[in-house]
Amino acid sequence: MRQAYIYDAVRTPRGRGNAKGSLHEVTAISLATQVLQALRDRNNLDTSLVDDVILGCVAPIGEQGANIARVAALNAGLAQTVAGVQMNRFCASG
């Protein structure tokens, strides 16, 4: 079995999920992309060394129903070889 490493951690902002919420126009993919870019930039990370991106999503519906981990990895400029998976453990996902 290969070893797994938690390299760093970044958290996204929180906001109300309604039309008056501060983040109502920000998509989950946009937030995830910003997180991956921050991890890459602040650690001078060679993304070709990353094997996988795993993201938790509490409510995988609509735009979030796709594999946002893979899409965000590509949007963030990670290597094309980096896999991505989205997991849902309900409220324990985030």
Features:
globular, 94 residues, alpha+beta, two-stranded parallel sheet, Peroxisomal Thiolase, Chain A, domain 1
Please describe what this structure looks like.
By secondary structure, this protein is an alpha+beta fold. It has one domain (1-94): Peroxisomal Thiolase, Chain A, domain 1. Helix content is 24%, strand content 11%. The protein is built from two helices and two strands. It has helices spanning 28-42, 68-75, and strands at 52-56, 83-87. Strands 1-2 form a two-stranded parallel sheet. Helix 1 packs across helix 2 (68-75). The two termini are 26 Å apart. The mean pLDDT is 88.
Write the layout of secondary structure elements.
Blueprint: H1 28-42, E1 52-56, H2 68-75, E2 83-87
Parallel strand pairs: 1-2
Helix pairs in contact: 1-2
Structure in a nutshell:
The chain is of the alpha+beta class and 94 residues long.
The major beta sheet can be summarized as:
2 strands, parallel
The portion of residues forming beta strands comes to: 5-15%
Instruction: Kindly identify the CATH topology.
Output: Peroxisomal Thiolase, Chain A, domain 1
The low-confidence runs, each spanning 5 or more residues with pLDDT under 50, are none
The rough form would be described as globular
Total number of distinct structural domains: 1
What sequence of helices (H) and strands (E) makes up the elements?
A: HEHE
What CATH architecture do you see?
3-Layer(aba) Sandwich
